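Researcher: Please generate the 3D structure of the following complex. Treat every line as part of one assembly.
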Amino acid sequence: MAIVNRAEGRAYLTPLVGFLLFFLGFPAAVNLVYSISTVSFETLRSPSLSGFGNYAAVLADREFWGAVSFSMRFGVLTALAECLIGLFLAVFLTPLLAKRSYLMAPLMLPLMVAPAMIGLMYRLVLHEFAGPVPYYLFEWFGDSPAFLGVDNAFRTLLVVEILQWTPFAFLLFYMAYAAIPLEVREAASLDGASALKALWWVELPLMLPTLVIAFFIRFIDGFRVFDNVYALTGSGAGGSTTSLSIYIYQAFFKGGAIGKAVAASVVLFLASLAVLYGLNWITGRGRR
Amino acid sequence: MKLNSTSFSAVAVLFASVALPGISHATVTVLGWPGGSEETALRATVEAYNAQSGIADADKVELLFFNRDGFFDKLQADMAAGSDAFDVNLVATYSIGRYAPYMEPVDLGADAGKVFGESVLKTMQFDGEQYGVPTDLSLHFMYYRKDLVDALMQDDVAKKKYAEIAKEHLGKDLQPKDPDSWTWDDWAATTLYFSKQVNSESPVRYGTVLQMKNLLFNMMVFQSLPRSYGADWTDKDGNVTVDSDAYKTGLELYKKLYDAGASPKDSLSYEYAETNAAYGSGQAATALQWNAAAADLTNAEKTPAVAAVTGIVAPPAGPNGRADHIHGLGLGLNKNAKNKEGAVKFLKWLATEDAALLYARSGGSPALAPDVAAKVSKERPDLVKLGEFASQYGYVMNGATSANALSVYELQAKEFTGYWAGQQSLEDALAHTKTGMQDLLKK
Amino acid sequence: MLNLLRWLVFVVAVLAMNFPVIVTVITSFKSARELSFNPGFWIGEPTLENYTRVLGETDRFNIYGYLFNSTIASLIGTGLAIALAFPAAYAIARSEAGRRTLLPLIINLRAVPLIIFAIPLYMMYQWLGLLDTQLGLGLILTIVNTPLALVILVNAISDVPSELDEAAKMDGASSWQVMLMIIRPVVRPAVVTTFIFGFITAWNEFLFGLMLTTSRAVPMTVGASFFFAASGGGVQWGTASAVMVLGALPPALLGLLMYRQISASLTAGAVKG
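Model: Done. Output below.
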């Protein structure tokens, strides 16, 4: 028996749907028109329809695909690292944290600072003459790598993102881990399972939904990364650190190619929608 | 935390903020460039304007500054959507073509030409119309370490080493020279001599600091090198000429110096601030940098390491002499202004000699005609230099005031940095730039 | 022994993850002069000049106004998002309504750079009179926050055994009552988490704040860049650091305050030792 019947379900959804329709309906419609028009900042109110040229231009643009590839790699790698480190910290540190909740404070702190400011700050931190990292590296080893050079920029950006957002995954995991009922753990230890075994066979499966959600959120956030990369390297030498968000922003504001920028977003929207529906379909089948 | 109380307070706040009164527009609102000396100067000037007896309350000027980051993107959105939040807005040479459709030309009167000179007024013109009063001028200085260069010139052993390095890396017979008579080759040889990686006896780590981040402003700094070899964006007939030998020479020289270790390894992520920090640390012998940095780099409080030993000259010369990329900031009239009459009145006043002098004395950097500049030469010797460099070496590329000028700089930034970073060949970079520029500059 | 290792891991993690924060705090106490020759971790001549500058120049840089605007807009953007998403999440978790189409559609909003909506929204806001208002900014932040709120809440409510609801229904409670009386208290940690994340996201949002405000409703992130530009201009590192420290304080305080709520409700079922 469904606890909420269909009609009630719709009623609960109405406020949210209504709100989004009201605020995004008009902009979305305008954007759809822009995406099939020749339009610039001067002709915002009078775009001229021109068919699917913008879509063709986007799909034929090597930089678009470069940006897709950057975002994809960035999203997967950061999400993986953040979840693994976050999970390890959550499980390993729980005995410490359960008794002293104030220890959570310093672990959550990185989340509070705007990513754009973190990016800006790393410009100072990594600067060969003004930053502490190269300063101490020179002091101790006599040399310091080019952190933001072409070869290292991607790795540096990964580390910057991972260090800031691991606490996000950690917090979700810590809560999921702490929420595992005491009886379950006791039962596991009564069965004589070792801590590792209990973790692998009992606790992790219980945390699985949270693991999936956290990975998913972190992947999306990594995929659409903008602020910190933009502040640190911009779009990078020759466009080497152009994430999809940066690509769209630059096309929109710097290039004035509004139709193309919007078309790129529509492509992104449809592609990710297809992926989500696909996932939904698979999990839906699994459930039945 | 209760859900109920949250949503309740949200609703309460919602109503509270709806009830806020709107600002009345009984004044002239001027949108200025925030944060720097431009702001200080504009504030002082506006204060003087408002204090005049002939100004009605309705025409008094109120200043508006929003932030720096993304300023022009925001301004573009505002103007394109027809905002009337300000009557007078900031405009820059490179963006004048982009904003002109949302602005109205102003007639500044015949005297404006005498105050600023025609070439400077031109930095605020589009399609032959005057769109703004020029307030500040930006160009580039070659900053160099007097102590290091002097020592080099007096040391015969060092001179020999210098000649060897020039021969080996540049294939030319060169001798150390006074910076004011440098060619780009002299400069290159000097930077190589002062780089640890080339010359282990160099007293500093790097010979120069190149700003090579993929950023449109960095292209303005770079532009003067190819320009002095005769480069231009287009020829007279509008054909894009970015694939000229002049651009090739300039691009190759930057790459050669970067690859040789004459500039910090991270130069590909350097812009204004990084360059200041690098030069200011005392570990670089030269830096081609904006004139705006002069105040900091010669201030012993802010940069104790180099302030006393920093010399300033115009950028080095090429076969076509010296060249210095100029662009102006100015103030112009918003098409949707609510108080146009008041706005025009203020702009006309701003273009008078008295106002320009006041602006200069308050810390702004206007480019003034020589006889006007002479009146503030005591307080602002740097303005004399600024005016001199601008009138002798200043240039604006063909097409650099067109609607897509910013996009051209943006494109060059991407393609040129791609070449410097070794991600594409020089030919490919120039071919891509040419195709893109043809698209952007066609009418 | 193991405990010692835990402490070690904790300290290393805290230092590594907070590295830029630590440097920022240190930098904010250095003068421009000192910064130009001392990049290290020690402070030779500690100074408060950066803070007095940021807090004192209220005619140019109204930090109190920015903080206030950010607080209001973020509260609207977070509170409203939760208020809208909570019933929706309940419906999605407990009936099949919306799971197939609506949920993916809304989640997708997080993947797309919302800035492409900036221009049409700007025109719409102009028409509605929402430009440069805290409410207008708050409403956009609501949209920004909705996807995350929905994901976390659906996940949390799905985890609540449905026997709980059914038992309550047997007793004659309406589904509305079940949602408020049964579900809400159980998923409180998730709501608090959503609130924290939402508030932080809203507080740190930059682009919409930039586009949709001019003077009266400018949020902290946008106001902060008054002292520096992320590209194409000078950065006064000391002042910028002081701005960052002050700008991050409110979400940090709020986050910690609310965190106590979560941990309090968690300790009931938490492991001992």
